Amino acid sequence: MVTVSLTGTSSHDAATVFGVLRTAFPTDPPFEDVPQEPPGGPSPVWTAEIAPADDRIPTGPAPLAGPVSATLQGGCLAVDLLRAALNGAFAVQERGTATGDREKEVDLRLGAKR
């Protein structure tokens, strides 16, 4: 299981990123919720838990209105599988990594593929 946290983005772009991950790693029941932005106040943090599998479904490029900051946290192999799925849909730039005995945290910046 990987916790995915998105910041600095709109609810639409958050839904796009989560949609790519849910397509790549289908869940039962399917994830249908669109993140809702609270009125006013600070920028929200969008989070989801994704259970990746080795047999992911490839996804193509997905549009984003602007850059998205993403943090992936979980088991090393699971984080790597999610990152590979994101690489298929977005331009991914690594901003930092922290690795423990069995877990990894990766900070990414996602953008639209050109």
What does this molecule look like?
The protein is α+β, with helices and mostly antiparallel strands. It is 25% helix and 34% strand. It has a five-stranded antiparallel sheet, with helices on one face. Strand 4 and strand 5 (103-112) form a beta hairpin. Helix 1 packs across helix 2. It is globular and about 35 Å long. The model has no long low-confidence stretch (mean pLDDT 86).
Set out the fold topology:
Blueprint: E1 2-7, H1 11-24, E2 46-50, E3 68-75, H2 76-89, E4 90-99, E5 103-112
Antiparallel strand pairs: 1-2, 1-3, 3-5, 4-5
* Net shape: globular
Beta-strand fraction estimate: 25-35%
Cα separation of the termini? 30 Å
Unreliable residue runs = none
Order of helices and strands: EHEEHEE
* Biggest beta sheet summary: 5 strands, antiparallel
Determine Rg (CA atoms, Å). Answer: 13 Å
**Residues in helices, as a percent range:** 10-25%
Please state the average pLDDT score: 86
Count of extended strands: 5
Q: In DSSP terms, counting alpha (H) and pi (I) runs of 4 or more, how many helices?
A: 2
User: Structural class per helix/strand content?
Assistant: alpha+beta
Main sheet strand line-up: 2-1-3-5-4
Features:
single chain; 114 residues; alpha+beta; 5-stranded antiparallel β-sheet; 2 helices; 5 strands; 25% helix; globular
Structure described in brief:
The protein is an alpha+beta fold and 114 residues long. Helix content is 25%, strand content 34%.
